[in-house]
Amino acid sequence: MMAEEAQKRVQAEVNKFLTNLDQTCLRKMQVQMFQCSAKCCENNNASMEQVASCVEDCSSKFRKAQSYISNEMSGFLKRLERCALQCQDQIHDQMNADTTDDQMKRFESQFESCVIRCADDTIKVMPDLFRKIKGIIEKEAYHKA
């Protein structure tokens, strides 16, 4: 099906972005988080609770970035889902008890074309969305987004 191909194209673009984000931003943050956590553990004068609190503080920035990315990607995928549901509604509104097999085939084709258009439109906005996400992560401006 062509709609499945369109879905694969969207997923490939998302994966490409997430890989790039991981390699250019997130891994650096993880290195800093682990180095910070290691320093917490090296403090022999600290209590278990102090070490745990220190380690928790070290991971805060990374967890906020992950949460922000997850929320943005969820919203992005919901946008695509809403578009596909709108396609479904448009076809459903045209159907009735007297719909013939030929009409059903035409409706299926129209639905497929509509879903492909949704995927194409989604792919078009991805570069801007991804630039925004990357910029916010680099500036640690999650609270403003």
Can you give a write-up of this model?
The protein is mostly helical and 145 residues long. It has one domain. 88% of the residues lie in helices and 0% in strands. Helix 1 runs parallel beside helix 3 and helix 2 packs antiparallel against helix 3. The radius of gyration is 23 Å and the shape is elongated. 7% of the residues are buried. The model has no long low-confidence stretch (mean pLDDT 91).
Write the layout of secondary structure elements.
Layout: H1 2-42, H2 48-94, H3 101-139
Helix pairs in contact: 1-2, 1-3, 2-3
Outline of the structure:
This is Protein FAM136A. The protein is mainly alpha-helical and 145 residues long.
Rg, nearest Å: 23 Å
Shape: elongated
Overall pLDDT confidence:
91
- Unreliable parts: none
Distance between the termini: 37 Å
Write the H/E string, N to C: HHH
Strand content: under 5%
Largest sheet properties:
none
Q: How much helicity do the residues have? A: over 70%
User: How many domains in all?
Assistant: 1
